[in-house]
């Protein structure tokens, strides 16, 4: 065996945050000199409702724990079972964080050396990419009497460690044990087990300091890996080091896919205004340039606010600009390349006679009667095509579906003319959304997200046009 005294443990909980959630079941197998000396398990009354999705996954209901003892009544027995033992669990810092926090609520401390069997598996079997408990059960032929129940999972772990101890030489095992017992880097103020509670699926994470407002909001297709990377030793420099040193709490929102994470991140950055995120410019003032052929003189390009508008009527609207300077710079570049008149396109006020650009041979001369308005504007419209919003590729609204096999989460986003009309988590709710679709309201930030997303093969494949 790996060590003279080991205590294998698994806990089931009301959620993934050891600070806010509570234990609902504990199983402990105490091993001494390779022999099982005690098998113990109990349901635990968490003192709160168990979320429906957790009840469905684990099979532990509110009714099952109603008559179970609270953690305070089993705390002494838990402590006795870990006396002089190494704390062994799969993704061990998660379980350790929950046990440590349960003792902390009682005003007690709990300390034990921790060995993670996920890290042990990675060290001993580096040729494999998956080291979750389901993968170990399948790969090593382990017997699990009840998956996602504390005792069944703990017995499967004991089988895995027993097999490993018989399969490798002592020197190899000792090197793997050192890796498996190495604690991850974390800020001093961040509670034990929080990082390990993060799921591997896509979503958004929020770092908090001492206050209620988030310091930083980020997203990833693999939340745990991305958040852990913030705390790895080779990344702790510059701005990232400044953020990490302030972190006291981590929160997260799981999504069904990358698009959902992108949309949620943009929403949270805009509404929560985290101090360490680059704040987006005010999108309410974003405007485009509308061509007005009725004007005989200049300017023939008029500014029109885009935010909140309906793109269906934007046939002659060009560009997405946040400031007049940004629009003027774009027009000035095009005018120089294609000999457009700065007066007619609004870069200079209109007056009689040829413009200075014409005298410098940079304007074809609509202002001096050298070409007609029609000739000038035909060239202008061709040039403006480079600034046009992307044409919507479908005849009407579409549904973009996302599904993550590991988390089981699904989502459907209804989009039309680059406007997000709504997002739901299941097909039943989708029907209700489609029955009463809201009006299209353009958002420049969502437009950029959707353009990038729908240009990818994966994005296109997720689209279902509505009838």
Structure, described:
This protein is an alpha+beta fold and 467 residues long. It is built from 17 helices and 15 strands. The strands form four sheets. Strands 3-2-1-4-5 form a five-stranded mixed sheet, with helices on both faces. A hairpin with a 2-residue loop joins β2 and β3. The chain is elongated, with a radius of gyration of 31 Å. It starts with a strand and ends with a strand.
User: Helical element count?
Assistant: 17
The CA-CA distance between the termini, in Å, is 63 Å
Secondary structure category: alpha+beta
Helix content: 25-40%
| Order of strands, widest sheet | 3-2-1-4-5
pLDDT < 50 runs, ≥5 residues: none
Number of strands: 15
Radius of gyration over alpha carbons? 31 Å
Sheet with the most strands? 5 strands, mixed
- Tell me the fraction of residues in β-strands, as a range: 15-25%
Coarse morphology? elongated
Task: Give the integer mean of the pLDDT values.
Answer: 91
Which descriptors apply to this entry?
467 residues, alpha+beta, five-stranded mixed sheet, four-stranded antiparallel sheet, 17 helices
Describe the protein's topology:
Blueprint: E1 5-13, E2 23-32, E3 35-43, H1 52-58, H2 62-65, H3 71-81, E4 86-89, H4 92-105, E5 114-116, H5 117-124, H6 133-140, H7 150-167, H8 170-180, E6 203-208, E7 214-220, H9 223-230, H10 238-246, E8 249-254, H11 258-272, E9 287-291, E10 301-305, E11 317-321, H12 324-338, H13 356-359, H14 373-384, E12 398-404, E13 409-416, E14 419-424, H15 427-435, H16 444-454, H17 457-461, E15 463-465
Helix pairs in contact: 5-8, 6-7, 11-16
């Amino acid at each position: 065996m790996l060590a003279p005294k080991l205590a294998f443990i698994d806990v089931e909980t009301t959620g993934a945050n050891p600070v806010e959630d509570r234990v609902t079941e504990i199983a402990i197998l105490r091993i001494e000199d390779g022999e099982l000396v005690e098998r113990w398990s109990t349901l635990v009354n968490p003192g709160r409702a168990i979320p429906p999705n957790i009840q469905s996954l684990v099979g532990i209901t509110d009714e099952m724990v109603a008559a179970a003892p609270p953690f305070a009544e089993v705390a002494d027995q838990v402590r006795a079972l870990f006396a002089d033992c190494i704390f062994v669990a799969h993704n061990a810092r998660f379980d350790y964080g929950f046990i440590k926090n349960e003792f902390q609520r009682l005003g007690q401390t709990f300390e034990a050396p921790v060995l993670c069997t996920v890290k042990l598996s990675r060290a001993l079997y580096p040729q494999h990419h998956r080291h979750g408990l389901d993968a170990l059960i399948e790969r090593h032929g382990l017997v699990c009497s009840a998956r996602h129940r504390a005792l069944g999972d703990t017995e499967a772990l004991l089988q895995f460690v027993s097999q490993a101890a018989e399969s490798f030489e002592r020197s190899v095992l000792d090197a793997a044990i050192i890796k498996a017992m190495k604690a991850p880097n974390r800020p001093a103020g961040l509670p034990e087990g929080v990082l390990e509670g993060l799921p591997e699926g896509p979503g958004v994470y929020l770092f908090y300091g001492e206050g209620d407002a988030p310091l930083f909001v980020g997203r990833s297709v693999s939340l745990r890996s991305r958040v852990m990377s913030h705390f790895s030793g080779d990344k702790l420099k510059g701005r990232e080091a400044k953020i990490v040193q302030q972190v006291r709490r981590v929160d997260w929102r799981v999504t069904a896919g990358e698009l959902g994470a992108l949309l949620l991140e943009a929403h949270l950055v805009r509404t929560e205004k985290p101090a360490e995120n680059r704040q987006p410019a005010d999108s309410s003032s974003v405007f485009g340039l509308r061509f007005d052929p009725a004007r005989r003189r200049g300017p023939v390009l008029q500014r029109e606010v885009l935010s909140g508008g309906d793109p269906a009527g934007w046939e002659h609207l060009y560009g997405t600009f946040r400031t007049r300077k940004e629009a003027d710079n774009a027009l000035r570049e095009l005018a120089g390349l294609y000999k457009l008149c700065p007066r007619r396109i609004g870069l200079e006020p209109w007056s009689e006679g040829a413009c200075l650009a014409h005298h410098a041979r940079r304007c074809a001369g609509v202002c001096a009667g050298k070409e007609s308005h029609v000739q000038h504007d035909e060239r202008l419209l061709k040039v403006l095509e480079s600034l046009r919003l992307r044409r919507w590729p479908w005849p009407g609204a579409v549904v973009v579906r996302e599904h993550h096999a590991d988390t089981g989460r699904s989502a459907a986003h209804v989009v039309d003319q680059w406007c997000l009309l709504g997002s739901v988590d299941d097909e039943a709710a989708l029907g209700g959304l489609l029955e009463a679709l809201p009006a299209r309201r353009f958002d420049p930030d969502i437009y950029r997200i959707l353009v990038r997303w729908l240009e990818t093969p994966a994005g296109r494949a997720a689209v279902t046009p509505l009838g």
